[in-house]
Amino acid sequence: MNNLRFDTLYFYPCILCFCWQSNSSENAIPSTLSSLNDSYILESKNASQEAFTLTWSYPDLGYQASVINALEMDVKDKNFANKVILASSKTDLSHTITVSDLNSKIMTLLKVYEMETAPIGIEFRISSSISAAADTLYSNIVSTTITPYEGE
What we know:
Blueprint: H1 2-22, E1 39-41, E2 50-55, E3 68-75, E4 84-89, E5 94-98, H2 99-112, E6 120-129, E7 137-138, E8 142-147
Parallel strand pairs: 1-8
Antiparallel strand pairs: 2-5, 3-4, 3-6, 6-7, 6-8
């Protein structure tokens, strides 16, 4: 009986090692994020209306895994240093954001970067992950210019 347990423990790390090496992110295909219009002007009178919907494809890891896709947003050319996560899901492949929610998130980013309220370049991407131990995959980056409004 002890030999069986020893053999099982002995081979278990080898199996994990094999799986880890063969499931590298090098061959994975990340999500593809749909494009947006070149620019949007947000107005408080349209606060409850849809600003736009972003859609994306499911990443292909080359094997079955439960993937969490997060829709991220940040100011253009900031390398997602202070990204805002708009949505996160294992199953959804789209997210619709209202004018009010989008405006609020942009105003937060403007404060973080100490920028004035004006038309601003905004970037979006999808980050796909299966665990903290695995590499995160990033989709293409989609950018647009958005003019936010102050106040409600």
